[in-house]
Amino acid sequence: MNTNEIMKMALDLAGLETQPQDTTISVPGDNIKKILIGVDMETPELLLAKELGYDLVVSHHPKADTAIVDFHYVMERQIDKMIEFGVPINRAQKALEKKKKTVEIGSHVSNYDRASSAAKLLGMPYMNIHMPADIIGENFVQKFINEQIGDNTRTTLQDLLDFLNEITLYQNAMAKPVIRCGKPSDYAGKVAVLYAGGTNGGSDVYKAYFDCGVGTIIAMHAPEDVIKDVRDQNIGNIIVAGHMASDSVGLNEIIKVWQLNGLEVTKMSGIL
Asked: What mean pLDDT do residues 81-106 have?
């Protein structure tokens, strides 16, 4: 099997027809039977894969080439997600602008060749799958939470924590789901699970959700400045489900498909 076929399986599972900018094949390869995959895979992991006889290294987080330089473009998906929850398109675009620009500036100065040049020197096929895994995880958790809440309008943040901890990956994580804004007894209201879209959209994006009726955002991670701003706004709640566990939700679904197609897959570097 080659890297294009392996990539297509992930895209198909996420319902994507084309590769997002944060999901790339840096070094293509053929006759792949053994895959080493992790959340963050760079030169040390490439060397390990070479030593252990793997045919392909897959990183979740973008670590090379256009997946880094063009990373900010995938944040546009957050506009579609905001629209889905009732945010007007013009408001959604403006809410995202500040964080998108910050990400673009940071990506532009990065050493985008570091990991891919190592892979080329080692002759090790190398790719990353970011957005597809995040979409799969987001959809899975949103559906699960919606089913658990049902018609209960008095669901609390503690209830949401309990629901998340029914999912095995969150049960087994060292960094378990936590409330970052709100109290356990606070009502959750409408819940938005926001995993896909590059990275956290910032406090302006969160406020746009809250102003349009969302009561609680479940995120993989939230930086301290966003948490502080949301606390100061005092109109919504944040639950951080946990980064590695949340990434693992979608990645494990992709891994299952690869294994069903005869590939041997070894997980490491953050995948539970």
From this structure: 96
Q: What is the pLDDT of residues 128-169, one digit of tens each?
A: 999 999 999 999 999 999 999 999 999 999 999 999 999 999
Q: Which of 111, 150, 134 is nearest to 39 (CA)?
A: 134
The first and second tokens of residue 82, run together, are 């905001």
- Structure tokens that stand for 201 in this block: 């959209």
CATH superfamily, region 135-244: NIF3 (NGG1p interacting factor 3)-like (3.40.1390.30)
What dotted CATH number matches 3-74+109-130+247-265? 3.40.1390.30
Average pLDDT of every residue of the chain:
97
Q: Please name the helix (run of DSSP H) or strand (run of DSSP E) that holds residue 34, with its range, or none.
A: strand 34-38
Q: What is the mean pLDDT of residues 107-130?
A: 96
Q: How far is CA 70 from CA 20, 181, 183, 265, in A?
A: 10, 32, 38, 28
Which of these, 64, 97, 74, 245, lies nearest to 172 by C-alpha position? 245
Structure tokens at 163: 């629901």
Give percent above pLDDT 90 in the chain: 99
Sign of CA dihedral 226, 108, 40, 164: positive
